[in-house]
Amino acid sequence: MALKKQNFNDEEEVAIFDEAVVYKRGEYWHFRLWLNDERKYARKSLRTRSRTTAIEKAKEAYVEIYANSKNGKKYFSITTKVGVEKYLTQRQKDVDAGLIVSGRHTTIKTHLQHWLNFIGKDTKLKELHRNDCEDYFYERMKDSQNNVKQVTIQNEQSTINACVKYLFKNNETHIDGFEFKKLPKVDRNNEAIRRATLSSEEYERVFKVMRSYCAKRKNKLDDAERIIRQIVRHYILIAANSGLRVGEQRQLCWDDIILEQRESNGQTKTLAKITIRAVTSKVRTSRIIYCRGGEYFRRLARLLKPKNDNDLIFSVDGKTMLRIGEVAALRYCDVVGEDDEIRAETTLSAAQTKGNKARTIWFAEKARVELAAYIATHKPKTPTQPLFYTQRSDGFTANTLTHIVNGIYKNAGISGATSHSGRRTGLTNLSERGVGVRTLMAIAGHANMSTTQRYIDMRPSVIRAAVELV
Description:
Blueprint: E1 13-16, E2 20-25, E3 28-35, E4 40-45, H1 51-70, H2 80-96, H3 102-119, H4 136-143, H5 150-169, H6 191-194, H7 200-213, H8 216-219, H9 223-242, H10 246-250, E5 257-264, E6 267-276, E7 287-291, H11 294-304, H12 324-329, H13 332-335, E8 345-348, E9 359-362, H14 365-377, H15 400-411, H16 421-432, H17 437-444, H18 449-455, H19 460-468
Antiparallel strand pairs: 1-2, 2-3, 3-4, 5-6, 6-7, 8-9
Helix pairs in contact: 2-3, 3-5, 9-11, 9-16, 16-17, 17-18
């Protein structure tokens, strides 16, 4: 667009290509260009006192802006916070389309929040350079007091670059990714890594601790808390025998399980044939596995008395698959209406949900009957009191399941084990019994064999037995 002003003071103003202007403010020269599409002036300091240098820099700036404009790139930038929100909105469409699970979306959001904390939420996207995240690993380790795993940071870096690549394709950045510093290779055979898998002796200790944890008379448990503890106990037992992912196991229904009797060495064993549905799988692929411990499913069925095959296994009522954190956040007023009747539905606020997004949940008829019976023996002091509480009347924390599982491991004298240890232990046990890595890969539901190999712990006892064969 041609300049309206035609007469300039050559000592302080110079026209550039009849569309832009360099002008002097104080001792330094500046650049100004009207952007018709964005209805704003592009302004920048040329950081020079030399008129000749200012003109050359202004011409370069003009050519760059003009070229970017022809390629559909805007001059003015959104912030990193707005860019992340745009990317998360796009990935939510993947959740709605069934391409990724909601848990994955939550993980992506967490990764990008760490990046925003590092880069600054008000930083302009078009001011980013490829080397701006060179110290990301150092700062993350520093902020977490070295309490974050290297593989976690590597995953965060992949998520960050995926976000930046998306924004680059949408002309929001001038770079398509960051050049993160190469991290040292993790020694996957060191003791810290192998602690995530339980040895046979450790598993026996955990087994005894869980039995004590669920003892009704010893712990003076009421029926409601006893059922919850039994669900946690069987969750660990089944995880260690099946090698299922946490999300897959949580979403198991009774019609996903078929118990079969098999003869082995003169003994009858109960195996569980488990169907993992594609909709519950992390990789969106269905598969069928067999595992020992079928008696655990049978025992849990006697405890919970499911009325329908499509009831959830690891659920008090079989229908309401709330996250542990959402169960913890439920209050009496969320469940009981003003007429003192159990609500058919309730809305959880953003603060009560894992995804920080309000949502409505529905209580099945069976759930409402069970809730009414529970409330009849657990009268609230106030309507906002937690619905489920411990023997100290505290509301469960958002990470109740994880804390309970880790507490059981701690009481068994095991350090380094996590809520994921059951899966690793189950796969390692199968490997030691001679099951091939391709079969393990199918059982675990891994897309890559290398992932399965990282899950398998090579215990010293196995290595010693191999040496004896020489």
